[in-house]
Automatic annotation (TrEMBL):
Residues 185-331 form the RsdA/BaiN/AoA(So)-like insert domain. Its cofactor is FAD. The keyword Amino-acid biosynthesis does not apply. This is Flavoprotein, HI0933 family. Signal peptide: none annotated.
Amino acid sequence: MQVGTLILGAGAAGMMCAAQIGNDCLVIDHARAPGEKIRISGGGRCNFTNLGCEPDRFLGENPHFHKSALARYTQWDFIDLVSRHGIAWHEKTLGQLFCDHSAREIIAMLRAEMGAADLWLETALRDLRHDGTFVATLDRQGQRVEIRAKRLVVATGGKSIPKMGASGLAYDIARQFGHRVTDTRPGLVPLTFPDGRFRAISGVSVPSVVRAGDAAFEEALLFTHRGLSGPSVLQASSYWREGAPIEVDLLPGSDLAGSLRTRRKEAGRRALATELARHLPQKLVAHLADEFDLSGRLGDLSDNRIDEIELALRTWTLRPAGSEGYRTAEVTLGGIGTEGLSSKTMESRHMPGLHFVGEAVDVTGWLGGYNFQWAWSSGWAAGQAI
Ligand code: FDA
């Protein structure tokens, strides 16, 4: 069988790409349903883009590569599309846009936009070669089918959540056609600590600024029985390297030292730990009491000691043992080296007619709708060129 374009992967980027092509396009996916990550994203409401989708909110070896696609198909274009389909949405926080009702509406919208494009589910790629056209041997629900395609778009995503069908297929195909693949690692992932260090305070959530490398994120931090999670930690995890420390400020926007000085005059007999529980959850204060010697009464604190306590709580340095890995990571950092791709069309510089889009490419966004926007923009860019 012959098609103009074969798209591997009916996820966010693959469907968006197919929506630009329509006719003479076949999309295959080994899953039972298209857009499974869209379905489970954002707690079932899909954080589909971000109002502040600026290029500096993306990681990758080349900090400029993603600019072209993101500028040509912007968050406003996707908001337009969503609104045209009558999907109700709202801004939750920090520019993050979610469906009011269900992520399934985004999948249905993309399916509708795909128009005449064919979609084969439960279909796996068994072999791929190029002899002037791409020749893909597929296993379609147990049946062997050979497809010849002038163009091939690889949209099979990264390695995160293998249980949902994530595979390294895109990287294998990239290498087959002479592309470099950077080191990959889990991103937007909870960090782990040995010996159930935070088990006693698991479930406690606090405002925080978490720093890793040069990056700092002010959002909520969540203690879990395995370690640390919550948006500030997930964000920082993308900048964290094995063996490195992270730094946690537990007092963003508050003047603890000033408050302790005032309270020392007003309530000198009060225990320091009791006073701190006005600023931080009591369970957390109890957990920190030994580490930072939070014993004694307010009246006994010198100015220096007050400053020391504030500094300790603002620069709590922790060394994660690792991360929860691809099992729970929202994204894969790294991927297909961008030097081998056109930033305008996502086409291979090694093999004309071959395109790579979405998470498989070495472009990774922050938490908050940025990764879907990259999938929409890169899928759109390839689809337009085809
Ligand atoms: P995607 O993973 O969407 O699609 C790849 C497709 O290829 C899948 O359908 C898969 O089945 C198929 N495939 C893989 N290997 C194959 C093979 N060997 N043969 C055939 N088919 C194959 N981002 C965001 O911006 N906002 C959010 O709210 C969230 N929330 C979120 C929650 C969770 C739990 C996760 C894991 C991730 C997110 N993300 C997110 C990230 C976002 O889901 C991700 O960046 C995009 O889905 C990437 O789109 P792609 O199309 O590149 O890959």
